[in-house]
Amino acid sequence: MKRLLLFITLFSISAVGFSQFKDPVKWTFAAKKIADKVYEVTYTAVVEKPWHIYSQTTPKGGPVPTKFSYKTNPLLTIKGIPKETGNLQKKHEEVFGVDVQYFDNKVTFTQIVNVKSSVKTNVSGTIEYMVCNDSECLPPKKVSFDLPLQ
Q1: Residue 109 falls within a domain, yes or no?
Q2: DSSP string of 35-104?
Q3: Do residues 57 and 65 touch, judged by C-beta distance below 8 A?
Q4: Which of 22, 39, 52, 74 is the one with CA 20 to 30 A from 95?
Q5: Is 16 a member of any domain?
Q6: Can you give the CATH number for the domain in which 112 is found?
Q7: Structural domain harbouring 72
Q8: pTM for the whole structure
Q9: pLDDT tens sequence across 4-57
Q10: What is the radius of gyration, based on Cα positions, of the chain?
Q11: Is 104 within a domain?
Q12: Quick check: 148 and 30 in contact, CB under 8 A?
């Protein structure tokens, strides 16, 4: 009985401890047809205050920049990196020793995707990103997406 009580107590403590690791970023995804065989795919990150998410162009040596990786699909052509729309902040971070670029509150990444034929297919992959506030950074995280292009 004592072992069971000890187990329940330890399990409860660790559950409370792990529940503190939350993600202050909420992602939404959308795909919109803008021309014949051309789609605009948007990835929107809403970031809780006081956190911020880093730009794709944050230099090496700094925090992990946001990075989009796409699963291979022979029916799609994806060129370049998504366009960033939001209130871009630039600041020299002594901790990293580089000038960082980040977004507070909300940022939308927009990617143009060309479909090679008129068939239904999906664009899918992962977004890797990192968030920090004035006192700490959370470990980099990956989120998956899978959007139909119809």
Answers
A1: yes
A2: ETTEEEEEEEEEE-TT-EEE-TTPPTTSSPPPEEEE---TTEEE-S-PEEEEEEEEEEETTTTEEEEEEE
A3: yes
A4: 22
A5: no
A6: 2.60.40.1250
A7: 23-149
A8: 0.84
A9: 333 333 334 433 344 456 899 999 999 999 999 999 999 999 999 999 999 999
A10: 20
A11: yes
A12: no
